């Protein structure tokens, strides 16, 4: 922590971005629906069955993730059927891939006794794909190298907004 943040007792974590994120994706079913969307699932019934939740719970989570802007409803129609909606990732939803993949890779390392059940690789080369913290220039950043400082461009939201 740098500058005024170095004294942890002198500031609060209000307006924390992690809290805002968890309000959207902080449930098991939300993360599993996102996992399925990354795997290519788009149909309502497939989300419910693959995640292992009731259709009511799937409908609630899909509505929540759609209203939050992570998924977009897109109409489709099977031959001879009625028009229905499928759920596709938005840019906002696709940007969560490193977060979800990072959680999965953490669990692969610490919670899977027999090694990871799936490998994530570059489709063309087969090279392992890993999530990691890097600078804009591509240099790795370890926890002991990470600085946290106030953003001079951030403005506290007005009460009620």
What does this structure look like?
By secondary structure, the protein is mostly helical. It has a single domain (15-145), classed as Winged helix-like DNA-binding domain superfamily/Winged helix DNA-binding domain (Arc Repressor Mutant, subunit A, Orthogonal Bundle). Helix content is 37%, strand content 9%. It has six helices and two strands. A two-stranded antiparallel sheet has the order 1-2. Strand 1 (71-77) and strand 2 (83-89) form a beta hairpin. Helix 2 crosses helix 3. The radius of gyration is 20 Å and the shape is globular. The two termini are 29 Å apart. The model has no long low-confidence stretch (mean pLDDT 91). Residues 16-115 form the HTH hxlR-type domain. This is Helix-turn-helix transcriptional regulator. It comes from Amycolatopsis thermalba. It holds the Pfam family HxlR. InterPro entries: HTH_HxlR, WH-like_DNA-bd_sf, WH_DNA-bd_sf.
TL;DR of this structure?
By secondary structure, this protein is mostly helical. Helices cover 37% and strands 9% of the residues.
List keywords for this structure.
single chain; 161 residues; mainly alpha; 6 helices; 37% helix
Number of discrete domains: 1
Identify low-pLDDT runs: none
Measured as a percent range, the helix fraction is 25-40%
- Overall pLDDT: 91
Quote the beta fraction. Answer: 5-15%
CATH superfamily: Winged helix-like DNA-binding domain superfamily/Winged helix DNA-binding domain
Shape, please? globular
How much is the radius of gyration in Å? Answer: 20 Å
CATH class: Mainly Alpha
- CATH fold type: Arc Repressor Mutant, subunit A
| Number of E-type strands | 2
What is the correct CATH architecture?
Orthogonal Bundle
Strand adjacency order, main sheet: 1-2
Count of alpha and pi helical runs: 6
